[in-house]
Design goal:
The chain has 177 residues and is mainly beta. The chain has a single domain, classed as Immunoglobulin-like (Sandwich), CATH 2.60.40.1510. The chain is built from two helices and ten strands. The longest helix has 7 residues, at 17-23. It is globular. The relative contact order is 0.30.
Length: 177
């Protein structure tokens, strides 16, 4: 099978882990470390859209491998992704959520299920959920809106959930039709 060349005007925007890590302060980059206490804090992220099953349940990695949900979308439309992160560890843990910002002609927003806009926190240093119990799920609604004439063909928007010891990434992939 021969690879087809990508047309010059079709750009690929990769707004995944690298983008989010560039936005985060070095002290906020979470890596696997040996925990100082008895419980290891970890998170398992998943992603879904209306009518789809949850992708990423039971899979934990930093690059979104086998945790990517792809959807086609027409210019001028928007798509809602539901992201959940299950906390495992102490009964009073923290989950930090970081995500990709938008780009020219692409608006990405992050909201809590109650409608509270947390975009600035998520795309800045991260939005922290505090007091998350063992087995509890935190949820974020991610909306990707395309302008009428997007300059890209594929958008990969990574959402990272992390605790003091582990991180997990899911990816919302939009293919412009």
């Amino acid at each position: 099978m021969r690879a087809r060349p990508v047309p010059t005007r079709s750009l690929v925007v990769l707004m995944t882990l690298a983008c989010s890590l560039l936005l985060a302060a070095p002290s906020q980059v979470v890596q696997a470390v040996t925990p100082s206490g008895p419980a290891v804090e970890r998170v398992d992220a998943w992603i879904s859209t209306k009518g789809s099953s949850r992708i990423g349940v039971g899979i934990v990695n930093a690059d979104g491998t086998n945790q990517t949900l792809s959807r086609g979308m027409k210019p001028g439309h928007r798509r809602l992704f539901r992201v959940g992160m299950v906390h495992r560890g102490s009964s009073n843990g923290r989950v930090l959520v970081r995500g990709c910002p938008g780009a020219t002609g692409i608006l990405v927003t992050y909201r809590l299920p109650n409608g509270t806009d947390i975009t600035t926190g998520v795309t800045g240093g991260g939005y922290t959920f505090r007091g998350v119990g063992d087995g509890a799920t935190v949820r974020v609604l991610v909306t990707v809106a395309l302008g009428r004439h997007p300059a890209v063909h594929t958008i990969n928007c990574g959402v990272i959930g992390s605790t003091r010891d582990r991180l997990d990434t899911v990816v919302a992939r939009i293919v412009v039709r």
